Amino acid sequence: MSSRGWSLLAVLTAAVLAHLPAFQAGFVYDDARFIQQNEALLARSPWEFFSDPATASAGTGLGDSGGGIVADIYRPLRTLLFSLERRAFGLEPRGWHAVGLLLHALNAWLVLRLLWRLLGTTGPAALAGALLFAVHPVGVESVVWVSSQGDLLALALLLLTLEVLLRPGVGRTIGGAVLCLLACLAKESAIVLPALLLLRDRALAKAHALPARVTWVRVALLVAVVGGYFALRFSVVTGALAQVEHPGGAVLASARGALAALAWYAGALLWPSGFRFETDLPTPLSWGEPAVVLGTGLLLTLLLVGGWAWRRGRPAVALFAAWGALVALAPVSQVLVPLKTLAAERFLYPLLPCAAAGLGAALAALAATRFKRAAWLFLLPALPLLLLSQQRAGAWKDDESLWEAVRADRPSNWRAYEGLGYALLQKGRFQDGERAYTSYLEFNPLDGKALRRMADQLGNLVRTLVSSDPEVQANSDLAQRRTEVQALQIAMLERALSVWERVGYKAGRGSEAWAVETQLKLRDASIDLGDLARAKRANDWFIARAGIDPSDQAQVTARAALRERECRWFLAWMAVTTPQGGETGVARTLRHAQRQAVLIDMGLEAMRHDEVLIRDLEAPLVALRAEREAAAKAAQGTPGEATARRRAAQLALLHAELLYTTGRPEEAQRLRQETMRGASDLVRPGPR
């Protein structure tokens, strides 16, 4: 086998081995909304991914995927790839991770070919650079995290564009333009391709150099392609590119952040220790902060190295390494487009080919001296880097291990506690999850989304705290636990709504649609718990939101269906609950009159709602009452008998209330008297 063949085998093997634990990894974090919950991957045609940005994520709707997420992501080629993988592998993660490994191996091969062209050698310099790309730990996030396959695909298409445009020719020029467009459609990080092509062509050795006219024509064509991509994006996605505003509304604040991030990137590349996922790097407040000063020095150094290489002439590999690195970071620099995250290791994946070129150039210069054999020594760090990448890849097994790794690395990272709390609640570990969420909310008490997600998990837990086994019902505190958890769920829902009311949906990570759903959940949970005051407040929110003038009969009639749906549960709890301490005849008559007034105010007929209540509530109520009476009989002579009899009696009183409210007072009175005579020592008044 030739030296090229051995080098290629070594690079591909290293690329796979470094990320082999990916096959044990599952779907984590944003994979839920991009893949697991994204039904558009199966339900839509491929062309819709290019015309409808909402297909990219399930988070543009409601539910655990994250209500309030705006459809501002336009990566249709990545979404198309996800769709193909979903159809091929379903939700079995190993197939998805195999695709990620194949894309990374392809990129490693293309980087090796790029270095052969830039360095003009197939020796240890090119091999060491390609191995750096293949095994460096900063690439693990992009390779192992399925949601980040856009980084892999975009870089593969970018490198293929550079490979195709190595020689002149109209066909190659057209092919490069098509690949450039596809790269941008995979991820917007590829918009820097025209600048990278210019730097790559300038860096080529004279033997491979292209005429300057060819380079500039191609650069101009790729600029036009990128412009076309933006035109397409803005025709599909409404709104600006920015995900957030500049800190304090100042571009200079983002510039300070970019310099601090540059220092952070240098540290991640030169000393890849720890686990830097979802870093909590803050925006610097002044230009004198150490990170800003260090970042400024690094920026000037890269600019000077690139300028020196440009003036020195071909081959200018250092130019591609220095200025290419800055160009690759431009889309995530925060200055052009501020992002939610100031720095992340996945932002470094497009930069790695430039770093590989820089290492290759340094080793090539060393090989030209009398220390020629010393260049081979630089292959040795590949092994510890490979092992470190394997260790990092292992942390992506599931959400719990991922966020535990983040917390172990940075105990002050608030994102770790949010992610860990959600993962633990998903696994049913309520106490551990509650502790993690409580820690997170101490860092960020105004996160309505986190409060709502915790409430949803509590709601899931409430649904599990039921049993049809009479022994369990009679001899356990299951009902009490269910009541406690439901009360906590209601408190979390109210806190989320309070946050959105105080700071707005954007700052509180919510949306109007999510607020509506939260009010619905609050109303239903309050009804289930018997907390009538909260249920009425939630329902009154819907009445106020509808904005209907009861004096305008035409408006009331036109919106009657809407009001019926919004008031149905409100009427239901009025019909089937007994106020605290019983109810006198005067109070009962007054409440009945109030119910009639509500119906008249809604423009609805009382008899129609009586029919609905009888049909939907009476049969289940009677069946449930029969179950409780059977449970009391089965528990006769045991300590659980009294509890079972009490519950049966309470249900009988609720049934009596339903009979009265729906126009059957004689039946109601008879059932109430029978119940009170048979269980006068057990019946406790129901909640108000």
Summarize the structure.
68% of the residues lie in helices and 0% in strands.
Rg: 33 Å
Which shape, going by the Cα principal axes? elongated
Summarize the amount of helix as a percent range: 55-70%
Low-confidence stretches: 60-68, 556-573, 575-582, 681-688
User: Major sheet, described briefly?
Assistant: none
Indicate the proportion of strand residues.
Answer: under 5%
**Number of DSSP-assigned strands:** 0
Number of H- or I-type helical stretches: 31
Mean pLDDT: 81
Structural class estimated from helices and strands: mainly alpha
The span between the termini is 85 Å
Short key terms for the protein model shown above:
disordered C terminus; mainly alpha; 688 residues; 68% helix
Structure description:
The protein is built from 31 helices and no strands. It is elongated. Among the domains are: 8-27 and 91-369, no CATH class; 563-688, no CATH class. It has 688 residues and is an all-alpha fold. The longest helix has 30 residues, at 478-507. The relative contact order is 0.07.
Write the layout of secondary structure elements.
Blueprint: H1 3-18, H2 31-36, H3 40-43, H4 48-51, H5 76-89, H6 93-119, H7 124-135, H8 140-144, H9 149-164, H10 170-186, H11 193-203, H12 212-236, H13 251-270, H14 290-312, H15 317-329, H16 352-367, H17 382-394, H18 399-409, H19 414-426, H20 430-443, H21 448-464, H22 470-475, H23 478-507, H24 512-529, H25 532-546, H26 553-558, H27 560-576, H28 585-602, H29 606-634, H30 641-661, H31 665-678
Helix pairs in contact: 1-6, 1-7, 1-17, 5-6, 5-10, 6-7, 6-9, 6-16, 7-16, 7-17, 9-10, 10-12, 11-12, 11-15, 13-14, 14-15, 15-16, 18-19, 19-20, 19-21, 20-21, 21-23, 23-24, 24-25, 25-27, 29-30, 30-31
